[in-house]
Amino acid sequence: MTAQPSGKPLPLTISAKAVREGYRWLLRGPERAYQSKQIHAFFAQEIYQRQNLWQMYSTQVYFGILALLLQLPFTVPKDIKRRKELRYGRRLKGPNLVSAKEFNEAIQGDGIGIKTDDMASLLSIPASAENKHILAIGDTGSGKSSVIRQFAFRIQQRGECAIIYDPAGEFIRQFYDEKRGDVVLNPLDVRMPYWNPADEVDDEPEALTLAKSFYQPDDVPNVFFVESPQKIFAYLISRDPQAGPGGLDRVDGQQRQD
């Protein structure tokens, strides 16, 4: 505060620079009336150097617009997401509809995958999960076979092996290649290699298990007509059918020469 000869003290003090320049007193001048035009001319000349508002703030406006344009691609999606959360609520758990790219990023999809016309990229699963189950559910004609066909095609491109259960024979026409060494396991197909079910059993329990898979009850009233064929088939398959009458009897896991 600086005391005044008359009136209230000024809430100001002389600066150190002013003291060094020889100033000692800070006094309040008498009230004066100024003309607006004179004040305007003074500020325009001495303070603003004859610059208008656009000249003074054009640089700030340009940088502000540039900053806004650079931030829009990042802020608009977040703002839309925030508005959806305010309108529909925030999803805590359950399925979430995402793009193929977002799906791959979320689960680290770097393995086999599928693609449709409305996808920009491949929808892939992790390579470490390829040996696990994949369930495809949909109505008739929804594309389940197309999904399996895409898997088979990509496995073929990778030069790997696949086992396909194809009761309708819809995949064998497209993927079977005899020169590659493909094998058809269908007793009604002439391309199937010779197979003897007796080669799969080593003792009577295994033979009986195989017989039960061929002759099942299927609500037969008299179990005799089910158990008898099972026992007969198990006995016959326990013997070597290729050896003839003098073959090896392998009932009870023991081999005896007839």
How much of the residues is beta strand, in percent?
A: under 5%
**Largest sheet: number of strands, sense, barrel closure:** 2 strands, antiparallel
**Strand order in the largest sheet:** 1-2
Structural class of the secondary structure composition? Answer: mainly alpha
Q: Share of helix among residues?
A: 40-55%
Number of DSSP helical runs:
8
**Unreliable stretches:** 246-258
Beta strand count: 4
Order of helices and strands: HHHHEEHHHHEE
| CA-atom Rg in angstroms | 46 Å
Mean pLDDT over the residues: 83
Structure description:
With 258 residues, the protein is mainly α. Among the domains are: 100-162, no CATH class; 197-257, no CATH class. It has 8 helices and 4 strands; from the N terminus they run H-H-H-H-E-E-H-H-H-H-E-E. A two-stranded antiparallel ribbon has the order 1-2. It has a two-stranded antiparallel sheet with strand order 3-4. A hairpin with an 8-residue loop joins strand 1 and strand 2 (123-124). Helix 7 packs across helix 8. It is rod-shaped, with a radius of gyration of 46 Å.
In short:
By secondary structure, this protein is mainly alpha-helical.
